[in-house]
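EI: anyone free to look at a 418-residue chain?
SC: sure, send it
EI:
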Amino acid sequence: MQLTDGAHHPVVVIGGGQAGLATSWQLSRHGVDHVVLEADRVGAEWRNRRWDSFCLVTPNWQCRLPGFPYDGADPDGFMVRDEIVDYLENYRQAFDVPIVEGVRATRLDAGFRIVTTAGTITAGQVVVATGPYQLPKIPRLAERLPVEQLHSSQYKRPEQLPDGDVVVVGTGQSGCQIAEDLHLAGRTVHLATGSAPRVARFYRGLDVVTWLDRMGYYRKGIEEFDDADAVRLRANHYVTGRDGGRDIDLRKFALEGMRLYGRLIDADRDTLRFADDLKRNLDHADAVSEGIKDSIDAYIAAERIDAPEEARYKPVWHPDTAPETLSLQGIGAVIWSTGFRRDDSWIRVPVFDGQGYPTHRRGVTNVPGLYFIGLPWQHTWGSGRFGGVADDAQYVAERIVEQRAGVHWIAGLHRTVA
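SC: here you go
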């Protein structure tokens, strides 16, 4: 499909990842003419920003984009990177999504004038589906380090790194999985921990994700939390789907030779410096995991479910002292697993709060006809993920249809225009 300069479209969806594709499916179901703009290719984030051994941390059965649930032979397994890309490509082809690839939206003005790399178009309504992971976040202290550095989104495999030890900064999902990847390859890893929680892979006979799904956790809306803003900013629990799925136990890695540190707080050309919080970080991660098990136990008891008993986790290693410094001598590379930030500078429409976050309710902004989809915790934990984006896409598509019929939704309120 080609983009025609000067054309007008009833609806333009900006972004061709899972959120944009799911929105397109819902719009087609409602008979709404639209076009999807994708700056790269379908599945570009999965193709370009994931390492070779990457796999999902949620079971395959949670891959349930609208009209296209996972139907492979391993619903309890975890798709690897190339299988995820194939899933999205097959989805696009199955429904003949009206997508234009290789065209980036560079400006969105009030009145929905959209400047792109292939010309300027206008829209009656716009859905921004560009996702939350646009610009890598790297601390300024990185400028002081004389060693090779890369962000987690640039990491592919251990062999791409120079000889020497590797420092991984950050223990979110990417940091822990990359540290494991390097550790399994025989590299000496120095891991700077943070406050990210962990979760067990399996408990009492089922994947923990399965238990949480049955308990309704993934259907809990953000408005049900007293600290909604804090919930949106929480780090994801670290775990892995590698080799059929298992826990990521940093204490076990330490027994095997991985070097653990507290939070990285400073650096110069010769030395990294860490906070004295390693024990607290490990204990916090374990406490969150055990708390989730408590909730599963309570659910099993309340529902009178016949589930096998399971012994609780016992720490296999404790730090005697927390190393506060690390010499850069012998360090070959530093990997910054420090997350991303949004880049909405191209959107020239007043829909952002004082911190630059889109003001919305379930993706509906205060500007009639402008929507977001794929934001973390847009409505539930699954927003933007394969498991929950279908519900968000349906909600946004229904608001688009109502807008076309003269019903305006603003921040959750609505009025009918005569």
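EI: The first strand starts at residue 8 and ends at 14.
SC: 👍
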